[in-house]
């Protein structure tokens, strides 16, 4: 029987895993600059966590969720996105308490699961990096979140991005707009897709997010939510636009953008690129926004939140060849070659000594002859090659050759630490 990975999943193998580590480290470095700390939550949660947060009419809940009943009869779901689990952890662990500095800033990274048609940069098991900030209702927190996303993209050399923003307003704004949107869509009921017909009175904003081409034509002339913002919501959005301008961040406004999750309000945003590796036209690689009611929805106190998520697979498709070559450069410092049977125990000790001094080192484990060992060192692109033979064993030393310059030195074991620091910097 031939065993294969499940459809819509991928093995992350060397040397490509280095590219993943590069992106993940870039994220950690960027988030650290903004004073974010890491949070890790379970890969599976109670189904209700996601149905309450994402909305029971969203595609995620109705079509894409991997959910099942476990042996204890509990309704469980593999996480389809990161925010809901982080909010649950925020509430359960009482991170809203007075002992925690506000805003509480956290980031996460890891696998997510959605049952959908696999395509380039979009798998059924995909990986997401995201951030969440709790405790501040300031529109400037929205702007910092967008700026941080752009900084991360710059760090992995993704430039020429397009920032798209919108406002979903506060509860009153959405209520007023909901009524206006229903009034606009009802005369077109018979022309809408079946999904949009079912959503029309449950959550009409979902119709704006429809992927059906006919639905998209109908909503082109729908009223804009920006026309129904309350005075407070208008002021919030005005501050966001002004602060983005202060930071020199260009943006466009798309009043039909609603995002695919029900928990958003006020500022929402998407960051897009136009790159053939992801397909034709503008493709979203990072998205997020504000969700001031979600903490209460999952059992916590009134507490505003804002965040974003980005897909790692899509980000990796955007890495340029120069960046990939730089990432794949060998970082092996020393390969130790043993000449003769008596050298084996000495090479083992020397390799371990290198490692104890912070030097990345390796040796032969396949009983190769010296010629084969030198070939391995060359294939691994080791910066230095250390050699031990009968003479070196007698002299309590080893030879160290710089593979770039060709210069070789005899190093006595008693001078090991000072000499290694001098040679390897």
From TrEMBL:
Compartments annotated for it: namely: Cytoplasm
Annotated L-histidine binding lies at 81-83, 114, 128, 132, 259, 263-264
Q: Which reaction does it catalyse?
A: tRNA(His) + L-histidine + ATP = L-histidyl-tRNA(His) + AMP + diphosphate + H(+)
What Gene Ontology molecular function terms does this protein carry? Answer: ATP binding; catalytic activity, acting on a protein; histidine-tRNA ligase activity; transferase activity
Q: What is its main location?
A: cytoplasm
> Some GO term, biological process aspect, for this entry: which one?
histidyl-tRNA aminoacylation
Recorded hits in Pfam families, A to Z, give: HGTP_anticodon, tRNA-synt_His
- CDD domains linked: HisRS-like_core (cd00773), HisRS_anticodon (cd00859)
What's in the GO CC field?
cytoplasm
Q: What is its EC number?
A: 6.1.1.21
The UniProt entry's coiled-coil ranges are none
Q: Which UniProt keywords apply?
A: Aminoacyl-tRNA synthetase, ATP-binding, Cytoplasm, Ligase, Nucleotide-binding, Protein biosynthesis
Using the record's annotation, list all stretches that form the Aminoacyl-transfer RNA synthetases class-II family profile domain.
20-319
Describe its assembly: Homodimer.
Give the protein family: Belongs to the class-II aminoacyl-tRNA synthetase family.
Protein's name according to its UniProt entry = Histidine--tRNA ligase
Q: What gene name does this entry carry? A: hisS
